């Protein structure tokens, strides 16, 4: 098969990456007043790094056999469909079984539309990253854990900034994290999460006065 057809530089053009780059303009937590705005692009990077270390912890400490690079890559793409759907606030998404089902159908269609933007010979490499139903169950669980950790850290950041708008969300997400019963998640919260409460100067000076997050008390 030839890939040099009727296009710029002799290759067919694809809008895929230009399109998904627009997730930088999609603001998360849209129903809440944010002291520190967060977009989907930066959130995706944070989830990818957390998911990666969860996989490493699983392999090193708990006898798992994760492909850590595959986990990180899938996490990096886990929210790209929001360039079409937008960031749907959790209270709306789960308001009723009907709304949850309807949103899932929209999400599935959005994922496939994004894959279809790719050159045909590249699609099979991206479907297991973009199409959520193609992501292995164990990888999905790690990404969900990382996603929830990122949400919890966001709540803590807002509370530290004096924004009580996130107090109830922090409590709810802390309970959700406990419900995961994942040792990798517990280890991250014990080892890495407390440092998120430190200032830059405290981090640089090696300050050992790390106050544990509420989940760890």
- Amino- and carboxy-terminal Cα gap: 60 Å
Helix and strand run? HHHHHHHHHHH
- The protein's oligomeric status is single chain
Query: What percent of the residues sit in helical stretches (DSSP H or I)?
Result: 55-70%
Task: Round the mean pLDDT to the nearest integer and report it.
Answer: 90
CATH domain fold name: Hypothetical protein af1432
User: What is the approximate shape?
Assistant: globular
The CATH architecture designation is Orthogonal Bundle
Helical region count?
A: 11
What's the domain count? 1
Q: What is the CATH superfamily classification?
A: Hypothetical protein af1432
Low-confidence stretches: 1-5
Q: Give me the count of strands.
A: 0
Fraction of residues in β-strands: under 5%
> In angstroms, what is the radius of gyration?
19 Å
* Largest β-sheet summary: none
Q: From the helix content, strand content and strand pairing, which structural class follows?
A: mainly alpha
CATH class: Mainly Alpha
């Amino acid at each position: 098969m030839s890939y040099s057809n009727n296009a710029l530089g002799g290759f067919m053009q694809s809008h895929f990456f230009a399109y998904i780059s627009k997730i930088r303009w999609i603001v998360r937590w849209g129903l809440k007043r944010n002291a520190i705005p967060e977009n989907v692009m930066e959130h995706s990077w944070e989830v990818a790094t957390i998911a990666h270390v969860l996989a490493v912890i699983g392999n090193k400490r708990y006898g798992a056999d994760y492909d850590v690079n595959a986990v990180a890559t899938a996490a990096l793409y886990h929210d790209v469909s929001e360039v079409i759907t937008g960031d749907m606030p959790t209270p709306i998404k789960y308001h009723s079984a009907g709304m949850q089902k309807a949103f899932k159908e929209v999400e599935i269609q959005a994922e496939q539309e994004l894959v279809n933007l790719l050159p045909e010979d590249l699609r099979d490499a991206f479907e297991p990253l973009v199409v959520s139903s193609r992501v292995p169950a164990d990888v999905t669980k790690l990404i969900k854990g990382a996603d929830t950790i990122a949400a919890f850290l966001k709540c803590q950041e807002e509370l530290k900034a004096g924004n009580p708008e996130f107090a109830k969300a922090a409590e709810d997400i802390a309970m959700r994290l406990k419900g995961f019963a994942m040792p990798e998640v517990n280890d991250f919260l014990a080892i890495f999460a407390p440092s998120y409460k430190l200032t830059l100067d405290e981090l640089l000076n090696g300050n050992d006065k790390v106050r544990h997050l509420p989940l760890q008390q």
